[in-house]
Amino acid sequence: MTKHPTTMPMRAHRPADLPRRGSDGAEARRLIAELGPGFNARTVRVLTEGDLVAVHGVHDDGGVARAGFDVFRIDRGRLAEHWAAHQAVVAETASGNSQTDGPADVTRPQQGARNGRLVDYLIDTILIGRKHDRLKHFFVADLIQHDPLVGNGVKALTAAWRTPGTCYERRHTTIADGEFVLTVSTGTVRHAPRVFYDLFRVDRGMVVEHWNVTTERGGLPSPATVATTAADGQGS
After folding, report:
1. For 76, which DSSP code?
2. What's the pTM?
3. From CA 208, how far away is CA 200, in angstroms rounded?
4. Which residues make beta-bridge pairs with 203?
5. Using alpha carbons only, what angle is made at residue 159 by residues 154 and 161, rounded to the nearest 5 degrees?
6. How far apart are CA 139 and CA 214, in angstroms?
7. Are strands 139-145 and 166-177 parallel, antiparallel or unpaired?
8. Cβ neighbours of 196 (radius 10 Å)
9. Taking a C-beta distance cutoff of 8 angstroms, is the pair 32, 39 a contact?
10. pLDDT score recorded for residue 62
């Protein structure tokens, strides 16, 4: 698993008309492309909410493919903060799905706020509260899974999250754009600190697809960003 600094100053990049609330994915993709060769990623999904832009894709890390997430915070038209989480691409996953495939486009932008609230409740009450017996009320039975170590279906995911060594403790931020919701949380795995990135696709009030990355440390928004998103109703 790749270790990342908590934040990465982005002042070297030129100002641009960067996305605000309601910006579409195409515009965000164009702006991400302008980051230049230093941001060497094949972008699969772009989510935008408020001053945050999340990119889901695959990086070329010295010839090693790593799938994961990059999140950028925009301040006064500049890229002010960057945090990320990536892990090596696995050739054969437990589910048979790759770590990034599946629907990529936001088709229901008006549902972002509602889906964000649903996923916030899922993380805060069900996962952090360890009420795993209620996961079946949030996920469809035939859940499409992209965690390389977990099979398809809500039963497989429930078993993975019920593992005594896995514990979610705090949700730091949420980015909800249409049917896609990304959360960044912290907790432990076998008592060692971990950062959890979870991307959910929601359809008619149920999670139908799940992507994720777990890192050993780093990959977190700054305390100021957490406080701001909490005030906006995005974070814990």
Report:
1. T
2. 0.83
3. 8
4. 206
5. 95
6. 20
7. unpaired
8. 24
9. yes
10. 80
CATH architecture of the domain covering 25-88 = Roll (3.10)
Helix (H, G, I), strand (E, B) or coil at 138: coil
Tell which CATH architecture fits domain 109-231: Roll (3.10)
25-88 against 109-231: fold identical: yes
d(CA 110, CA 36) in angstroms, rounded, equals: 31
User: What are the domain boundaries of the chain?
Assistant: 25-88, 109-231
Backbone angles phi, psi at 117, to 5 degrees: -65, -40
CA distance 21 to 97: 32
The C-alpha angle 181, 220, 130, rounded to 5 degrees, equals: 60
Q: Contact, 186 vs 166, CB < 8 A? A: no
* CA atoms of 216 and 194, how far apart (whole Å): 5
What type of residue sits at position 225? Answer: T
Q: Over the stretch 79-124, which tens digit does the pLDDT of each residue have?
A: 788 899 999 999 999 999 999 999 999 999 999 999 999 999 999 9
> Pairing mode, if any, of strands 52-61 and 166-177?
unpaired
Structure-block tokens of residue 231:
């005030």
Q: How far from 142 is each of 148, 152, 209, CA to CA, in Å?
A: 16, 7, 9
Position 232 scores a pLDDT of 53
176 burial via Cβ count (<10 Å: 0-12, 13-18, 19+): buried
| pLDDT tens per residue, range 41-91 | 788 999 999 989 999 999 987 888 999 999 988 887 677 888 999 999 999
